[in-house]
Design goal:
Blueprint (H helix, E strand, L loop, with lengths): L4 H5 L6 E4 L4 H13 L6 E6 L6 H14 L4 E3 L3 H11 L8 H20 L4 E3 L16 E4 L4 E4 L7 H11 L53
Parallel strand pairs: 1-2, 1-4, 2-3, 4-6
Antiparallel strand pairs: 5-6
The structure holds iron/sulfur cluster.
């Protein structure tokens, strides 16, 4: 498995951020970043707390912080927007239509991400091309037009096995829901374990068509 992270980071001047969303891939990306980020480069590890995460996620959050001796900054939806959404959709209403689901992701993920990336020069993700149909054309380096900064996907060509091997080799902690058949960790109302033979993101928004399975934070603007 390859990563080009040292060569890329050496060329970046401003602060960078890792979007940590509790995936196995994110743990590998975090480990790589802590190893290769030059001391002169400011690095923020952040997560988007949608207020809809699994109860197990908070315990895992604390475990990762203790393991790496880091602090993971949480960004939240704006309270008035989240409350309005809850009143409109209720606890499970995001499953009612694609439009409602996008509205929920927009308030709970897209808007907080904008806040998290403000003032950064680049953001790093654990995205891989093999994860799903929506990620097939992924590149290691992309320009994020929406947020006007560089997006770095150091694990772009990694396979499921590469990720598993990396975590095993370095004895890195895994979210406890992986042991219950989950292959991707998201919000509780929108994530379930995957079945044999399904791709790793099949458990996310499982009631939707595969081409819709993104929350909006990794979508490119239409050309
Ligand atoms: S994944 Fe589901 S609960 Fe989470 S923000 Fe999107 S629609 Fe809302």
């Amino acid at each position: 498995m390859e990563t080009y992270i040292p060569g890329i980071l050496d060329r970046i001047k401003g602060p960078i951020a890792l979007a940590f969303s509790y995936q196995a891939e994110d743990v590998a990306a975090l480990h790589l970043l802590l190893r290769y980020t030059p001391k002169s480069l400011e690095l923020e590890i952040f997560t988007l707390d949608t207020l809809k995460l699994f109860p197990e996620t908070q315990g895992y959050h604390e475990k990762v912080e203790a393991f790496f001796r880091i602090s993971i900054k949480k960004y939240y939806p704006l309270p008035d927007e989240a409350q309005k959404l809850e009143e409109q959709l209720g606890a499970w209403g995001m499953r009612g239509s694609l439009e409602d689901r996008h509205a929920c992701c927009h308030v709970r993920k897209v808007n907080p991400l904008r806040q998290a990336l403000a003032g950064k020069s680049a953001w790093v993700t654990g995205l891989r091309a093999a994860q799903s149909l929506t990620r097939k054309g992924l590149q290691i380096l992309e320009y994020d037009e929406e947020h006007r900064l560089l997006k770095i996907n150091p694990l772009v060509s990694w396979t499921d096995q590469d990720v598993a091997d990396y975590l095993h080799t370095h004895d890195l902690p895994l979210h406890p829901l992986y042991a219950q058949g989950f292959k991707s960790i998201g919000c509780a109302p929108c994530t379930r374990p995957v079945r044999e033979g399904e791709d790793s993101r099949a458990g996310r928004w499982w009631w939707e068509n595969p081409e819709h399975k993104e929350c909006g934070i990794h979508l490119k603007k239409p050309e």
